[in-house]
Amino acid sequence: MIKKLILIRHGKAKSVEPGQSDFDRELTDKARQVLASVDGFMRSFYLLDAHSASHATLWTSPAVRARQTATEVSVALGGELEPVAVDSLWEQDEDTFMDQVAATDTDCLIAVGHIPALNSLIERYTGVELSLKPGGMATIDLDDERRSGTLEWFVQGPVVD
């Protein structure tokens, strides 16, 4: 039964190139470097307890920049997590995502997605208004029904020039 939900906004993405879809945008090279550094996800996941880290499931939007971010999350947690693409994160379908969260039985669910849906989900789960910057994350301790919870910690994303 899921107890902890970690919502992560993808890292800073490149601008859309002519003829390119938003879906295919990649992280900037600097964003990848920063997320992989001590100031990136290693710093943030230092706050995660060992049980949650070793019993986590990693979901990601199927968009390129989110999948790249999820890869950096996996590396920061030892490289064992295989990201699973979840369409509701790309579609920003909050109700479907919340139903999927309620139906999963993992101890710790990490989900990489996009704003504004992530900001809205944090507020729906906790009542707290936050604005995630690229690479930012919020950890929520969910109640037994997995429909609400308490904001445990929040780490704003690393600065990327």
- Catalogue the unreliable spans: none
Radius of gyration: 14 Å
Shape estimate: globular
| Major sheet characteristics | 6 strands, mixed
Identify the notable features of this structure and list them briefly.
161 residues; 6-stranded mixed sheet; alpha/beta; 7 helices
Fold and architecture overview:
- The chain is an alpha/beta fold and 161 residues long.
- It is built from 7 helices and 6 strands, in the order βαααβαβααβαββ.
- The protein has helices spanning 29-36, 38-45, 50-54, 64-76, 87-91, 94-103, 117-126; strands spanning 4-9, 56-60, 84-85, 108-113, 137-142, 149-155.
- Strands 3-2-4-1-5-6 form a 6-stranded mixed beta sheet, sandwiched between helices.
- α1 (29-36) packs across α2 (38-45).
- The longest helix has 13 residues, at 64-76.
- The chain is globular and about 45 Å long.
- The model has no long low-confidence stretch (mean pLDDT 93).
Strand and helix layout:
Blueprint: E1 4-9, H1 29-36, H2 38-45, H3 50-54, E2 56-60, H4 64-76, E3 84-85, H5 87-91, H6 94-103, E4 108-113, H7 117-126, E5 137-142, E6 149-155
Parallel strand pairs: 1-4, 2-3, 2-4
Antiparallel strand pairs: 1-5, 5-6
Brief rundown of the structure:
The protein is an alpha/beta fold and 161 residues long. It is built from 7 helices and 6 strands.
